[in-house]
Amino acid sequence: MAFSAVTISPLAEVENGATVAEGSVVWQFTKIRAGSSIGKRCRIGGGVYVGAGVAIGDDCKIENTAQVFEGAQVGSGVFIGPGALLLNDSYPRAITPSGALKQAMDWTVKGVTVDDGASIGGGAVVLPGHHIGRFALVGAGAVVVTSIAPHALVVGNPARRIGTVCGCGTPVGEELFCSACGLDFVLDPATGFLEPSR
Ligand SMILES: CC(C)(COP(=O)(O)OP(=O)(O)OC[C@H]1O[C@@H](n2cnc3c(N)ncnc32)[C@H](O)[C@@H]1OP(=O)(O)O)[C@@H](O)C(=O)NCCC(=O)NCCS
Ligand SMILES: [Zn+2]
Q: What average pLDDT does the segment 66-87 reach?
């Protein structure tokens, strides 16, 4: 493992070949698998799983017991809420047709990708292979079955878009600008939702 100036609980396990960049903190009972990388200044809570080869950018917050399975690619400034699941196997089986325990080569990984600044609410489930756009916000407990557009606010099972959220985290209504930071939005006739004007 290669890291400097990081804080890793002695009760966490960072496998050889994983990297945790400077300024990051990893709490107890978290497992970070070989080949994965955690960027700078990340906060990784307790009981988190980061699968082999997963890449996580800088300034991310991954809350307690979130599970980020193999194949996931997570940008910078991403929030993954407590207990959220980023899945990677659409048709899971423990065994092959001959009854042997499946090995890594016996199944196809379809990882989730999350763009910079996006947030995934507590207990949300993102099904394999889907993409969460930049600054999108997935509501707590949502089950994401499609890819999610940038700045989309989605809730429910299956997750449906109910609005637009600014990069600062504020929902944007009909006033065409963010009441918190002033960013301008325009109505996209194709989607019927507001999108940033630039
Ligand atoms: C999605 C979310 C951002 C919406 O917040 P909001 O804009 O204040 O929305 P409201 O509470 O006004 O609800 C708007 C509608 O969406 C529904 N809704 C809100 N959150 C929902 C959720 N997580 N799942 C399903 N429906 C939800 C409400 O019932 C309401 O429906 P209605 O219009 O039919 O009455 C928020 O509820 C949420 O889930 N945030 C994530 C919290 C979280 O996981 N934090 C992690 C750190 S602790
Ligand atoms: Zn804003």
A: 98
> Which position has the token pair 């429910």?
156
Domains of the chain listed by start with CATH number: 1-165 (2.160.10.10), 172-198 (no CATH)
- The set of residues, in sequence order, having a beta carbon less than 8 Å from that of 35 and lying 6+ positions away, is 17, 18, 52, 53
- Measured between alpha carbons, how far apart are the two ends of the chain, in Å? 41
Rounded to the nearest whole angstrom, what is the distance from the C-alpha of residue 114 to the centroid of ligand 1?
A: 20
Quote the percentage of the chain above a pLDDT of 90: 94
pLDDT band of residue 104 (cuts 50, 70, 90) is confident
Average pLDDT for 165-171? 97
Tell me if 63 sits within 8 A of 82, measured CB to CB.
yes
**Bridge partner residues of 186 (DSSP):** 195
Atom 27 of ligand 1, nearest CA residue: 155
Residue 9 pLDDT > 80, yes or no?
yes
Residue 189 CA from chain centroid, whole number:
29
Q: Note if the pTM is more than 0.85.
A: yes
Atom of ligand 1 nearest to the CA of 138: 1
Q: Cβ < 6 Å from ligand 1: which residues?
A: 81, 121-122, 137, 139-142, 155-156, 162, 171
- Enclosing H/E stretch for 160: strand 160-165
User: What distance in Å separates the CA atoms of residue 80 and residue 180, rounded to the nearest whole number?
Assistant: 23
pLDDT value, residue 18: 98
